Amino acid sequence: MPSWPLPPDSLLHVAAEMINAGTKVAILVGQGCLNARDEVLALAEKVGGPIIKALLGKAVVPDESPYTTGGIGLLGTAPSQDAMQECDTLVVAGSSFPYIEFYPKPGQAKTVQIDIDPARIGLRYPANVGLVGDCRDVLRALLPLLTRKQDRSFLITAQERMQQWRELLEERGICTDEPMKPQVVTYHLNKLLAPNAIVSVDSGTIATWAARYIDIRDDMQFSLSGTLATMANGLPYSIGAAVAHPNRQVVCIVGDGGFTMLMGEVATLVKYNLPVKVIIVKNNMLGMIKWEQMVLEGNPEFGVELQPIDFAAFARACGAAGYTITAPDEAEAVLHEALARRGPAIIEAVVDPTAPPLPGHITTKQAWNFAEALARGQEDRWDILKTVATNTVREVI
Ligand SMILES: Cc1ncc(C[n+]2csc(CCOP(=O)(O)OP(=O)(O)O)c2C)c(N)n1
Ligand SMILES: [Mg+2]
Q: Which of 89, 255, 351, 377 qualifies as a cystine partner to 25, CB 3.0-4.6 A?
């Protein structure tokens, strides 16, 4: 067991006083808190404020916990962003989430930052107090110094917003329109995952759907190439996970572009009988780049169409099981059957290439109205789409 020094008592007391003085305390956690679930939940309970998760910290606390508003950033939730905009005190623990526009405005929030690397203190957002050490140990030392807040209104507001956000996701997840929307795939997959599943994801529009729809439960683990944002990592991550944890369910959610880059690895799955389930969200497109070209550059899309491949037939040619989903009403049953197979399986889900990634940066109410406005032919819809895609593209590249 490695051991890390703890910050001096005097500094812990300064941090505690700052947190005790706050009336709206938000908690931002990243992968440095993956071993500190109980401590992070205890902190949220004490301060009466929501836990906001950077994507690599998605498994820090379960998504169904009443203490979390889920992700932050362009793939995150509107309630997380609302909490960031409204907090007067911020605790950043084990995260170097880089998108500064998602932090509170400068001067808005007193900030306590906990990180094992002193070079990260104040790197993204000014920290009033920096506590250097392992997040779990530092939180354990800090918690006894904190007073439980009587006023729970900041947390309650976050919970009410989360309820609305979840209803919005559900509405889109059960959409029966054809071509099938990509959200439908992740919506059904989420309900079928084992409580100790290991899920890995590629960069691309798929990252948005996975970030929002996959709910961490119990011992689930979740990763993507968060700091490098590469494509094609999902399947190799899954191979590593399946070798390391032969008794756990291992699933990757990948784009057709990313999968095509390393599809030879299906032979690896078969050769070593690794029961990985590969969900390919197939839009015949480098979807993220299509958005970038149209809305960042103002150019017509160019060179982003992929050569369509029958991935199910390819899987069978390699000796794996291959499935195709084209209609929303078959998604649940096909995913269920594929996940129950003993060996490797590839499931291609053919989806609508024009489905825009959801807005995460605008308010809950605006997010609520977004789909409706587009459907009605809202005059400024291209402006809205531009903002959405601009932000989403920046998240993953
Ligand atoms: C190795 C690598 N090359 C290029 C990029 C830039 N890039 C980011 S997303 C993307 C398109 C991904 O397409 P796909 O895997 O089909 O997912 P989609 O966006 O269609 O969901 C590209 C080219 C990258 N992140 N990594
Ligand atoms: Mg694609």
A: 89
